[in-house]
Batch of 2 targets.
Target 1
Amino acid sequence: MANLASDFIGIKSPNPFWLASAPPTDKEYNVRRAYEAGWGGVVWKTLGSEGPPVVNVNGPRYGAIWGADRRLLGLNNIELITDRPLEINLREIKSVKRDYRDRALVISLMVPCDEESWKDILHRIEDTEADGVELNFGCPHGMAERGMGSAVGQVPEYIEMVTRWVKQHSRMPCIVKLTPNISDIRKPAEAAKRGGADAVSLINTINSITSVNLDSFSPEPMIDGKGTHGGYCGPAVKPIALNMVAEIARSMETRGLPISGIGGVTTWRDAAEFMMLGAGNVQVCTAAMTYGFKIVQEMISGLSDYMDQKGFTSTADLVGRAVPNVTDWQYLNLNYVTKARIDQDLCISCGRCFAACEDTSHQAIAMSPERVFTVKDDECVACNLCVNVCPVENCITMTELPKGAVDERTGRVVSDYANWTQHPNNPSVQAAE
Ligand SMILES: Cc1cc2nc3c(=O)[nH]c(=O)nc-3n(C[C@H](O)[C@H](O)[C@H](O)COP(=O)(O)O)c2cc1C
Ligand code: SF4
Ligand code: SF4
């Protein structure tokens, strides 16, 4: 069995699966059971400054998006940071860490944006023997209006300044958690690096309204007839998170900065994808909230089987493996030609591919009177839409034309790699000639 042991910025855990800072990690009772279920680490639910505890709403705090089978695809929340007293959290963290020395325990923090507040909280947590801190610059609701969370995360200068304070006043490894509610994720990551962060984690939740009640005319979740924007997470956000992780992993300025990947991780495959794009480990929230702590067991066995199959001996063999294959559009091979192929044995004649291609793509699928569907190679631009709308897996596949073959649509012979920077239609190529 492959060795899943993980060393993330010096924080060791038996596997790379950590629970993200959220309700699954908000108390000793939960964290102990999470460790027993097999989680390699946890980031404790965000702690704030000492003082009157945070107040949450007393009505619904979640909204959701579901697939046709009622499977949860996206979760929206308006919950704040921990609403339990700081003293109790600190006592519980210390007690859990004492009993689970082999597991990672990172404390998430969010306090007002002044040096004294950060110095004070760092001093308060020192005694817990936690393995590190994660700075929550990501929460998009409630705390942002008070000048914390994503209000800090959206200003790179603040990120750099706070990270620097944290590194100055603490010897703990410091992970900066980034908000996706920003146009270029590389900027806050660069700021975190400049401030001395040991790693970044991303993504926190995305600003969102999941639905509107058409009878009460209010956004949901609805609190006494009113709603507000919340933080979106779960499987629906994974593509956004993957792209942001990849952007940081391949940027010259942030290359090599360790990344903890978060956002929609539900299966071992999701985790492997994040790691391939540069994440040293992953954090999970919605999947644990949907299916319970035991889902980590499928993640452990699935990743381990995959690594055995590929001959990977440690998780380090996975990390960043796909990064060199993430490129800009202009470098894609324009001489890579494929055509859609329909497997007639699998086809159930539903006609979805025909409707999609006929109405919104390139009129490249023919339907016979007997409802047999075939691809017209002289029209097919290989867009892949039919593959994505077909309800039968692998019924339509894209097949590569070999070099030397003629593309019936363009009449051109398939030749060697050439991209847009070399294409005769590119104005800069024309200018150079
Ligand atoms: C109910 C809820 C509460 C959360 N609270 C926190 C928090 O206190 N601190 C934090 O850094 N992130 C918080 N998050 C964000 C998660 O840690 C995570 O970044 C996000 O949910 C994306 O991961 P996922 O798609 O696996 O859920 C919360 C998420 C949810 C759903
Ligand atoms: S790949 Fe695109 S163009 Fe080709 S058949 Fe499918 S939908 Fe039509
Ligand atoms: S969408 Fe798939 S199953 Fe339906 S007709 Fe087209 S190829 Fe057949």
Note: The chain has two domains: 6-325, 329-432.
Target 2
Amino acid sequence: MTQDAGGCSRKRKRRNRWKPETASTELSTTTAPGVTNSTVKQPPSASTGFKSSPKPSSFLEKMKAKLSGGHFRMLNEKLYTCSGDEAFKYFKEDPSLFDMYHTGYQEQMSRWPEQPVNIIMKWLKDHKSSLIVADFGCGDARLAKGVKNKVFSLDLVSNDPSVIACDMSNTPLDSLSIDVSVFCLSLMGTNFPSFLQEAHRVLKPSGWLLIAEVKSRFNPNNGGADPDRFSQAVCDLGFTSVSKDFSNKMFILIYFRKKAKNNSSKEIKWPELKPCMYKRR
Ligand SMILES: C[S@@+](CC[C@H](N)C(=O)[O-])C[C@H]1O[C@@H](n2cnc3c(N)ncnc32)[C@H](O)[C@@H]1O
């Protein structure tokens, strides 16, 4: 799975199956049930200096990686194409799917030169630590672990006592209780406007709304949403746009503040946010 800034996924690259061999190659074998794990020394191929078949353990590892990559892509697609409520019920039935999704997600993120969660962490460190934060779609709750602030970490499944399991369109947080609402790559459900509506409900007046999203979802030349239309819709919900940062190749950052009063009752025209799918490598 690879992801680029232009279009979420990029085409499969052919890789050289053959690897140069060192003088003595150590193969760590994958253990079958009842078989003791062992290390096998394999002689180098005298003629070519290259092995003619993949290492057995690396073959099995590759098969495992392909399977888990497939599961990740399926779960990722599910999250982008159903409502938050449906996703909540889906993961409640089998919470182990959540770990499967996050293993693939972390693999994916390890390829990004910079992770948006770290930028949001830095933003919080540059502001008062007394600000109360709600992290909508917190994943492994990295944000809460990296700052001094009180953080309410919200996600579909809670593997950590500090994480509140809920659909983020319907959180147990009190109205007007939060200073900073964060959505870091988490506007995934088809009903994403209700996630933002919930963030608005829990924020105090002048509270911050920090959004980081995959850049290609906001590229109108590639079927993505018009970022200005998106910002306008968020403003119509009751926010003021403060800043936009499109400088990163992988993600965009848009920051808003909640208006003290929102007198607008006009119907909000939300742009569609296209799912971010990952193709097979
Ligand atoms: C792409 S991950 C990002 C995780 C984290 N914010 C980060 O930056 O590392 C998106 C997260 O949003 C969560 N999510 C998606 N829809 C949700 C919903 N309706 N309610 C709560 N969490 C949701 C997913 O379970 C997933 O953990």
Note: Residues 79, 84, 87, 105, 117, 137-139, 142, 154-156, 167-168, 184-186, 188-189 surround S-adenosylmethionine (CB under 6 Å).
